[in-house]
Specification:
alpha+beta; Transposase_21; 6-stranded antiparallel beta barrel; Transposase domain-containing protein
């Protein structure tokens, strides 16, 4: 009976075979049933059959074309080699709305010149050599649909020599190489954002048009697989764990050995580990990456008492000593920061959550550490349950341990083989994840603080709520004391001093189990303390209390919504009534920028001054330069803030997040400013980093390959006369300057010995400019009433800090300059306020509170300054009719939305 069975999809292989009625109906109505799939007409089907016959006439059919990446990633159930994946993976569905438009401009730039430069030549060009191909970052911006193997044209069998030599002509007599044709098709696909179905149909059309014996790939799947192989992205490694106890399942085990788990009949599940060694090998072949590793040696961080970066921290200075692991004697060695957090891509709580593990290279400049190019996605847990961190983190920790002791042989851009090593300095996570990684009690348990041995105090009915009252002396934990507690736990089987057992991080002996688990200020301060304070002020349960502001919400919202933010803040301020949907960055902006001007005069003075202690201290600890005096001040401010919490808001308000405020300066001394370990910068790139685990095509790598083939190395750079720290944008317009602007410009020209501009002369005016990577605009050009990217902080000729509003950008005798209307500083925001507390009054009178928020007044004085003197944008948080503006400055230029 099996012998009489008709071959599956026989009509695909024989033109005389009858097309099933259902199949014919589907091909005609597919566009009506699913708008995401391209329409496949009968004529196109027949054309693909004719084209396939010509392919079969010259070669045999390979069944390997039905291989799918989805099976390797582990996000789909396994398919047989004859099954057709007809839907996207779960990861694809999560990020289905992710747009690839970010790369349209690059694709357009290359498409124009690439067609003329990929013509086949008899001699192999060095730019087309496999060894010259750039290994770019896995910034997958093109998340296509799965290739449907129904209607697929099978790949012809090719020799190994053919697969290696991509410089062969596409067909006999062709002027385009095989590789050139591949890249052209992918550039076209990326530019027009073709779906997976559309790409399949495009290849069928090409097969129908190409002559017999052509060398183009036979399917869309194999085309994408080709690029995946070229750019060396290995499939993730699957690790098995028990679906019941979440414990590790060893390679040769088929089930969990625990009796309870065997009775539960839960399936074995898997998490993924990405190839860290391969990514490191790729990066060390990048000349830019190797050059950037020297950043830590450029500014003599170890000789500076100010804290500007992780290199100024006590823990980093130790391996920076001569002969140390990260010293100039070992310039290629690196250190990692370990970061993990739960990410819920679904609105429904019963869906699966992602738990990624990110590794950040600390030696890179701050702005590049968390970029998609250089940050590693090391592991991924996808389950309804939270991960067992002892199971999940183990393979990554073991991998780092191997890199620390044995190292990894890499090939540098100069072709030399070098052994590089890596270490793990710190780990950052929210409180629940940290307790799992450290294998300690949570924040609601006795001695649940990972930094000190404070017991806390239980309150409420049944003692279910634990608070952390202020205590004068805190006993800090040490690595030695934690290890000793672990030994006692092993002996007694009971928690000791909050320690429940051995942490998986013990596998890496250089890691400090106390200092290494840093506080993530995004979770503890932004989503913890700040959110709690807003709820105290606005929740109806506090009605009747002195600090209750619920009846004044309308006034607060009016002030909040009138704030104008620059373009580098993606979200404009939202109403306090919507705070339930605020993101961490919105709570951060409220704390540092919005809250003080909004609350002034509304929150009682005593509470207001108390709150400014917190704002001032955090603004210091997240700044890009912290002096020893400022660090001492921040510690004093936070200590007094916590001391007064019970008096002002009651004992129950002293949650664990408020307790952690007293430990912040400790970690700043160890590892630098709080933004070093902030999850804000890390997890904003999660969607694009996770996309490399699907079958999508890496568009940056395709474009980079096109650069090599076309003899180009980069996109067009700014004009030659542009300042390296700033250049103007857009088409210039000739305009006359007003009298005050003309005086400022001529003063600038005269001081440089250049010819001044006469009355009535026109100058080249631009409305936008790029300075230090940020786009600034002019007051006259600003299109949005809600945005303000022209109010700035700048330096005058003497190096003093000034504020102003950009009126226009000019190009004067090769100099890129800005004409600025000066804003004169006109007092402090808190100086007129007094409190019944002598302590708070002393802080207010000292002038140290909210130093980053200034009150200014518009003047009629204009200055002409080079673009390099523009330091940062300011947020206009309030205005008044008498030309008074309250400005908030950004403490650092690293963290952004």
């Amino acid at each position: 009976m099996a012998d009489n069975r008709v071959k599956r999809k026989a009509w695909m292989h024989c033109k005389d075979a009858k097309i099933p009625r259902t199949t014919a109906w589907r091909s005609k109505t597919v566009g009506k049933r699913n708008v995401r799939k391209s329409l496949m007409s009968d004529s196109l089907v027949k054309m693909s059959i004719v084209a396939e016959e010509s392919v079969r006439s010259s070669s045999s059919v390979s069944d390997e074309s039905t291989f799918t990446f989805a099976n390797e990633t582990g996000f789909q159930s396994d398919h047989s080699s004859t099954e057709s994946p007809t839907s996207t993976t779960e990861i694809d569905n999560v990020f289905d709305d992710y747009d690839s438009a970010n790369f349209e401009d690059e694709v357009d730039d290359f498409s124009s010149f690439f067609i003329d430069s990929v013509a086949y030549s008899g001699e192999k060009s060095s730019s087309e050599s496999d060894t010259e191909r750039s290994d770019c970052s896995s910034d997958s911006e093109f998340d296509s649909e799965k290739d449907e193997t129904s209607g697929i044209i099978h790949e012809s069998k090719m020799s190994n020599e053919d697969l290696v030599d991509d410089n062969i002509p596409l067909y006999k007599g062709a002027k385009v190489s095989r590789l050139g044709a591949f890249v052209l098709v992918m550039l076209f696909t990326l530019r027009h954002q073709l779906s997976g179905r559309a790409l399949i149909d495009l290849l069928k059309v090409l097969h129908a048009l190409l002559p017999d014996g052509h060398r183009f790939v036979a399917s869309a799947f194999l085309l994408k697989k080709y690029f995946a192989d070229v750019f060396g992205e290995p499939s993730p490694k699957k690790h098995s764990y028990c679906g019941n106890c979440l414990g590790r399942i060893r390679n040769r085990q088929t089930e969990c050995l625990k009796e309870k788990c065997q009775k539960s009949k839960k399936k074995i599940e898997h998490f993924l580990e990405l190839d860290l060694h391969m990514r490191l090998c790729q990066l060390y072949r990048d000349a830019d990456f190797v050059r950037l590793l020297g950043y830590r040696f450029e500014n003599d961080f170890h000789d500076d008492d100010d804290i500007c970066d992780i290199f100024n921290g006590q823990e980093y200075r130790k391996p920076m000593q001569p002969g140390g692991f990260l010293s100039k004697d070992n310039p290629l060695n690196i250190s990692f920061s370990f970061n993990t957090d739960g990410v819920a891509p679904y609105k429904s709580s019963n869906k699966q959550n992602f738990w990624p593990i990110f590794l950040v290279i600390n030696e890179l400049p701050p702005r590049l550490r968390c970029s998609r190019k250089y940050m590693f996605l090391a592991g991924l847990w996808c389950s309804k349950k939270k991960p067992n961190m002892q199971t999940f983190c183990r393979p990554i920790i073991e991998n780092i341990n191997g890199l620390y002791h044995s190292g990894l042989t890499v090939v540098t851009p100069t072709g030399q083989q070098k052994i590089i090593k890596a270490t793990l300095l710190l780990s950052s996570a929210d409180l629940p994840a940290k307790s799992l990684m450290a294998n300690m009690k949570q924040y609601n348990g006795e001695k649940g603080c990972s930094v000190c041995e404070d017991e806390g105090k239980t309150v409420g009915v049944g003692g279910l709520h634990r608070i952390w009252p202020y205590t004068m002396d805190m006993v800090l934990r040490t690595h030695k004391s934690v290890v000793e507690s672990i030994r006692k736990v092993v002996q007694t089987g009971k928690p000791i001093n909050g320690v429940k057992g051995a942490s998986v991080f013990l596998l890496f002996k250089p890691f400090n189990l106390v200092k290494g688990f840093v506080i993530d200020w995004m979770h503890s301060v932004c989503l913890g303390v700040t959110k709690s304070l807003i709820n105290l002020w606005l929740n109806a349960e506090n009605r009747g209390k002195e600090f209750f502001l619920g009846s004044k919400t309308a006034l607060l919202n009016k002030r909040l919504l009138s704030i104008k933010v620059p373009d580098i803040i993606t979200r404009c301020p939202r109403s306090l009534s919507d705070r339930g949907t605020w993101k961490a960055t919105e709570y951060r902006n409220w704390l540092l920028h919005y809250s003080v001007p909004v609350l002034k005069g509304v929150l009682p003075d005593h509470y207001f001054l108390h709150y400014t202690l917190l704002v001032t201290a955090i603004a210091i600890l997240v700044s890009d330069r912290i002096t020893p005096e400022q660090l001492k001040l921040a510690d004093e401010l936070l200590d007094n803030f916590c001391k007064l919490m019970s008096e002002l808001y009651g004992e129950s308000s002293q949650t664990h997040n408020f307790h952690l405020l007293r430990h912040l300066t400790y970690f700043v001394k160890l590892f630098g400013p709080l933004w070093i370990a902030s999850a804000v910068s890390i997890f904003r790139n999660f969607p694009t980093l996770i996309s490399k685990m699907t079958t999508s095509v890496n568009s940056e790598c395709v474009i980079s390959l096109a650069e090599h083939l076309a003899g180009e190395r980069s996109l067009p750079s700014p004009p030659g006369d542009a300042d390296p720290k700033g250049f103007v944008l857009g088409v210039s317009k000739k305009e006359q300057l007003i009298q005050q602007e003309l005086l400022a410009v001529n003063r600038f020209l005269y001081c440089r010995g250049l010819k001044v501009i006469g009355q009535g002369d026109e100058v080249q005016t631009h409305w936008r400019a790029v300075v230090n990577g940020a786009i600034f605009s002019c007051a006259q050009w600003s299109k949005s009433k809600l945005k303000n990217s022209y109010t700035i902080q700048y330096e005058d000729a003497k190096g003093s800090t000034q504020f102003g509003e950009i009126q226009r950008f000019l190009v004067l005798k090769g100099h890129n300059v800005a004409v600025v209307k000066n804003l004169a500083v006109n007092g402090s925001l808190v100086s007129p306020i007094t409190s019944s507390s002598e302590l708070l009054n002393n802080f207010a009178d000292s002038g140290v509170l909210v130093h980053h928020i200034v009150v200014t007044k518009r003047s009629n004085i204009y200055f002409c300054i080079p673009l390099c003197r523009i330091k940062r944008m300011c947020i206009v948080v309030s205005t008044s009719g008498d030309n008074m503006l309250t400005l908030s400055t950004f403490p650092n230029l690293v963290e952004h939305d």
